[in-house]
Design a protein that fits this description.
This protein is of the alpha/beta class. The chain contains 21 helices and 15 strands. Strands 11-10-9-12-13-15-14 form a seven-stranded mixed beta sheet, sandwiched between helices. Strands 1-2-3-4 form a four-stranded antiparallel beta sheet, with helices on both faces. Strand 2 and strand 3 form a beta hairpin. Helix 6 packs across helix 9 and helix 16 runs parallel beside helix 17. The longest helix has about 35 residues. The chain is elongated and about 95 Å long.
Length: about 575
């Protein structure tokens, strides 16, 4: 049993379109399937019923509607928030569409033309010769196919695109299951093929094949009548291909409809070719994706069968001020309320003075994500871990539970380091964690910086931070000085310095979330300073420096450990506690 219902995959969802209705199903941040439905006009415009013309119209309408559907799905998915309140995302979507069309023309029209020109030049073939006229279009066609394959394979490596292709597979399987007259269950859908005769991928393939055939005929005719300008002028050929797109689109659409309702033996090669390309644009979906596709398909069946069923739409966006008021009135402590503001400014990339603006609208998907983040903060998790980033010395850094969150006190350590180095300095950031000190030194002073840590996970974060901030630093996996072989002008270190039996008394946000390996300094908190006092002198040049962060009560103890080989100075922090040790090698 054939159906006229067709669909489109979007981010985390599927759209299905029937005779009189359309349903977009998207899985939201909480795992629920959200539905947005639309009633379609029952009477089609006259031009939608004219063979060949309808193919061109459908191509244009599909591009416009596809952009609108993707934009609509963004209301549930976490996409960019319009912080200016001026509808800027609409302009952005329009610009993206124009750039996408320009890229497509460049890749699939202009580039194949120049590939062919290069092949003819290398082979020293005469483009005016009738004997080779057909070869020109054949090479262009092969080039188009290869470019299309490479393009599809390349974008399928992106996580988001791969998931869209999986939803594409779920869409095809659902339609195939219905046409096989099996009940629409996840189990039955998963058994079905992800290939479908009416797929847009096959349409693209037909357009390419047909354009090759048309251009081959034109080349042969032009060569026969002596119209060499068309054979020699590559820009003229490219412009003609663009002009012929409506023709090839119209014919290709009729071919697609014909092949969909016939299995005639002469049609099978084209069907096979379309199927091979669909293997690139579809992937095997998981059960949850099939559930989404089934929900959209069933909704269309319902609405097509019963015209009284009303439309339903995704929840409307709310203003930032309204959302913030709702959150702050939900029984949070004052400390957590402050963290919520940090959460909003960080995630929405706005300033604190923007928090009360009604012009900033938050799509439904964002309210779900922010609500989940709020719950994590209310449970005690530091907001920096929740948003996955923090600010340090004017730059943004990635942080997670594998590294400590840099504090203001550590900025003071960094400030003292920067006063004492220049671009000729060689610096070691020991126990680097997220790498913020060493990266800042490399960026602010142009120094040669090595950053070292015993934790592979911490070094992974540090490597990402170096890449994001475009800092040239060398990473070393080392348990303190074990793998350190170079000499340095300065060694900076913020080692673990909390006494082992004190860790359980720390604030829940610290002891329950931050890595214990970065906190525990042994029974008296001085284990790592003893190693530094013993080994650091052998890793420093003459007059080399140590810049160390210490605990508020460790100034005298650390000074005593170092003063045999160093001239030691202890500096205070903002609270007038001992916090920084500057030690110069004697």
């Amino acid at each position: 049993m054939k159906t006229k219902i067709g669909g489109q995959a979007v981010l985390e969802g599927v759209m299905m379109r029937g005779a009189t209705s359309m349903a977009l199903a998207v899985r939201d941040e909480l795992g629920n399937i959200r539905m947005d439905t639309t009633r379609l006009a029952t009477k089609k415009p006259w031009y939608r019923r004219v063979p060949f013309l309808r193919g061109v119209v459908n191509l244009i309408v599909s591009m416009i509607d596809g952009s609108k559907i993707i934009s609509k799905s963004a209301e549930v998915m976490v996409e960019e928030v319009d912080t200016k309140g001026d509808g800027g995302m609409g302009w952005l979507m329009g610009i993206s569409t124009v750039l996408g069309v320009a890229l497509a023309l460049g890749l699939f029209v202009v580039l194949p033309t120049y590939v062919t020109k290069g092949v003819f030049a290398l082979a020293q073939l005469d483009t005016k010769n009738l004997e080779w006229a057909w070869l020109k279009s054949l090479i262009e066609g092969v080039a188009k196919m290869l470019i299309l394959v490479v393009y599809m394979v390349a974008i399928s490596q992106m996580k988001e695109i791969k998931r869209v292709f999986m939803y594409h597979g779920a869409e095809h399987k659902t339609i195939a299951c219905f046409e096989s007259e099996m009940p629409l269950t996840v189990e039955n859908v998963q058994k079905c093929s992800r290939y479908h005769d009416r797929c847009g991928t096959s349409f693209i393939v037909f357009v390419v094949v047909l354009s090759v055939v048309l251009m081959m005929v034109l080349d042969i005719v032009c060569a026969a009548v002596g119209f060499t300008l068309f054979l020699e002028n590559w820009w003229l050929r490219a412009l003609l291909k663009i002009a012929l797109l409506p023709v090839t689109a119209g014919i290709s659409y009729e071919m697609l409809m014909l092949l969909a309702c016939s299995n005639f033996i002469l049609f099978r090669p084209l069907k096979w070719l379309g199927k091979q390309f669909q293997k690139l644009t579809t992937r095997e979906p998981d059960d949850g994706m099939c559930e989404v596709a089934i929900a959209a398909f069933n909704k269309v069946l319902e609405m097509d069968a019963d015209v009284t069923i009303p439309e339903e739409h995704f929840p409307a966006p709310v203003s930032l001020a309204q959302f913030r008021t709702q959150v702050l009135e939900s029984g949070l402590t004052e400390c957590v309320k402050g963290d919520i503001d940090w959460l909003l400014t960080s995630m929405l990339n706005i300033k604190k003075e923007d928090l009360s603006k009604d012009t900033i609208k938050i799509p439904y998907g964002w309210t779900l994500r922010l609500e989940k983040m709020k719950e994590r903060i209310a449970a005690g998790e530091p907001w920096q871990y929740v948003v996955g980033k923090t600010e340090f010395y004017g730059r943004t850094y990635v942080v997670n539970k594998d590294v400590l969150i840099p504090r203001q006190e550590t900025e003071l350590v960094c400030e003292q380091l920067l006063k004492r180095i220049d671009k000729k300095s060689k610096v070691l950031d020991l126990c680097c964690g997220s790498g913020v000190i060493g990266i800042t030194a490399a960026l602010a002073k142009g120094a040669s910086v090595d950053i070292a840590d015993v934790s592979k996970k911490a070094l992974k974060v540090a490597k990402l931070n170096a890449k994001l901030n475009k800092a040239n630093v060398q990473l070393i996996e080392s348990d303190m000085f074990e793998e350190i072989t170079d000499m340095y002008n300065v060694i900076v270190c913020n080692p673990p310095y909390i006494e082992s039996d004190v860790i359980d008394t720390l604030d829940d946000s610290v002891k329950n979330y931050e890595p214990k390996i970065a906190l525990d300094g042994g029974d008296d908190g001085l284990d790592f300073y003893r190693q530094i006092a013993t080994v650091a002198p052998h890793c420093l040049f003459k007059n080399g420096l140590l810049v160390l962060e210490i605990g508020y009560n460790q100034g005298e103890a650390v000074k005593a450990l170092l003063e045999e080989k160093f001239e030691v100075q202890v500096l205070k922090d903002y609270s007038d506690n001992d916090r920084i040790v500057i030690a110069k090698l004697k």
